[in-house]
Amino acid sequence: MTRGEDNKQALPEQTPTISSQNLTPSQLVTALQRERPDWFNEIVEAHGEVTAIVPREHIVEVCSRLKTWPEAKFDFLADLCGADRGPEEEPRFEVNYHLFSTTKHHRLRLKVLLSEDDVKVPTVTNVWRTANWHERETYDLFGVIFDGHPDLRRILLPDDWEGYALRKDFPLRGYEPYSLK
Amino acid sequence: MSTTLNLPPQFEIVDRPLDTQMTISMGPQHPSTHGVLRLELVLDGEMVVKATPDIGYLHTGMEKLFEYKKYQQGIVITDRMDYLNPLGNNLAYVMAVEKLLGLEIPERAQTIRVLTCELQRIASHLVWLGTHALDIGAMTVFFYCFREREKILNLIEAASGGRLTPSYFRIGGLMMDLPAGFERRVKQFLDGFPKSLDEFHKLLSGNRIFQKRTQGVGQISAEDAIDWGLSGPCLRGSGIKLDIRRANPYTGYENYDFEIPTEADGDVWARYMVRMREMTESHKIVVQALARLKPGPVKADAPKVVLPDREAMKTHMDALIHHFLIVAEGFDVPVGEVYQPIEASKGELGVYVKSDGGPKPARVHFRGPSFVNLSALPQMSEGAMVADIVAIIGSLDIVLGEIDR
Question: Looking at the structure, do residues B68 and B49 belong to the same domain, yes or no?
């Protein structure tokens, strides 16, 4: 899936038919879900935060729509981070996108779940350039492959590091001292 | 081969004599890289074609470590991330855990958190100012900045016992109340600070060399700044009026009266001016926080989470049991995940905490403002001179401890 196609799909002016000025993030995603039910698997609200679980094939469309849709205006990717639920869980990995709007000041978390056999998700670097380093970090520490990323290299650990340090099955002290290799 | 001058052929200016570009490595031991940042610079003469930051030299696996420590033990790890603004890190982390636990923090503890955090913000900006000026060649400012910072560190030491790593905030409140005479000492500092700030302005703001080195250097537009995720003074230097203390208020910041300084130009000078004006605003907040300080408890009423007072422990059996359980086994945090952003001295510091119910977090992630701000460096430094890179790095105010974690 190339990024250019996603943008074209996401940009058309078919914004949901809600005209109220200040929608809360949960109203926003619910409105969007009504229009495109396949974009969201689940919407959870807890601790005053909204989490929307998005199938990975739609993550780029959802992101660029939320960024350009005037009601939402999530123009700022505050954070992107991975999480490992443990080797026995299925799906095992999570990628969390923390969205923020610099004009409306609301926040939203998108979550993509990935199974261990296929740890791949399309990159959002074409939506927000700041995703570049966040995705490199997630790749470095969790081994999540971001398809279409312009420069997917390790960022914190050395290039020849073996394994992914933040996975739950990676021991705290590593396997052997790096300097002995 | 091109020239606009009318020169005889033997003096013809050749654009690129060797038609080659040179790649050099700046850092990781370069003094202006503030720690251990390495830049791979592709140079055309003295002009930067491409700058690629290489980070990770200070990586110590802190996020991994969190997963092996109880919630309350994580506080001391946060001190070591952005070591110029440790109280900000403490605050972001404890607030995230408090959000998961649903704790109510007493008024006095909130006010003290604001007070000490704003003092810390001034201290952090003073280190930035001193080292930034030093990088550019103005050595004197450094000594004046560190003189003032020393006073703040003494105050933080009086409150918490630590200067660089205070770990003053606890989940549910503070380690302890402020010591006797603290308010008087803060007042003393506050009285002298505006005068020192004037001194800094006299030393730098009117300095023509400093102006030439910073104005128009390392520019970034407002759209680019948002796209690159810049936050804090770097974003406000590009004309975006955004401050998490106002946008998503926490710890009672909505009750304080302060301005959000912005500058339109998006260059090194703009970021300098924003931080200078921010110190005045922080000063204002500290004055208000001092006035608000009323006697009261500094710990939440949650005996299973907050350590009991020393006195209670010696006289009450249940207090002793709670103390033992918290220290030996920790406390369980309900299943859930939160993202807590705060306005640290360098920008948006976000803490993501995920709990699976036990006494240790399942995942802790720090969105360090320095990490994100540094990622925009290639964009800012395109076409700059090598000497400008030093000014640009200084203006980003990065701390490698937070970038590499």
Answer: no
